[in-house]
Amino acid sequence: MDIERLSLGPSVRLNRYRLMATATLNAVGHFVAEDCTFNLGDLSVLRTGRDDVVLITVDFLSPGGERSFSGSCVANTDDMLYSVVCATLDAVNRTFEGLRTKEPLEYEIEPG
């Protein structure tokens, strides 16, 4: 899987977050054996009290219908992209219990 090709678009601040969330959803989709799609609904960075929170909504489309899920993560201001990934995974983790995944893949990491 070529991570760099999972999502393309201009890298302005909010769009960069959307690109990272979309890339995360596309990567997760590679491991699902079922006929389904994860689609980014919305992404917001909200101030709550003294913290920023990344809030993601994900639409899950399958032959059984459409469902929406949300995920969140307290923002790590040093690494907002990591916070976006965590919020995205928080949203999709609720769907995995009932999905079949592809056989486990083994990766061999070679020294660079």
Number of E strands: 3
- Helical segment tally? 2
Strand content: 25-35%
For the CA atoms, what is the radius of gyration? 15 Å
Broad CATH class: Alpha Beta
Main sheet attributes: strand count, strand direction, barrel closure: 3 strands, antiparallel
Tell me the structural class: alpha+beta
Q: Remind me, CATH topology?
A: Double Stranded RNA Binding Domain
Task: Give the spatial strand order of the biggest sheet.
Answer: 1-2-3
Poorly predicted regions are none
What order do the SSEs take from the amino end to the carboxyl end, as H and E?
HEEEH
Overall CATH architecture: 2-Layer Sandwich
* Overall pLDDT metric: 82
How many individual domains? 1
The first-to-last residue Cα distance is 18 Å
Shape: globular
Question: Can you put this structure into words, describing what you see?
Answer:
The chain is 27% helix and 30% strand. The mean pLDDT is 82. The chain is globular, with a radius of gyration of 15 Å. α1 packs across α2. It has a 3-stranded antiparallel β-sheet with strand order 1-2-3. The chain has helices spanning 13-29, 80-92, and strands at residues 37-48, 51-62, 65-74. With 112 residues, it is α+β, with helices and mostly antiparallel strands. The two termini are 18 Å apart. A hairpin with a 2-residue loop joins β1 and β2. It has a single domain (3-97), classed as 2-Layer Sandwich (Double Stranded RNA Binding Domain). The protein contains 2 helices and 3 strands. The longest helix is centred in the N-terminal third of the chain and has 17 residues, at 13-29.
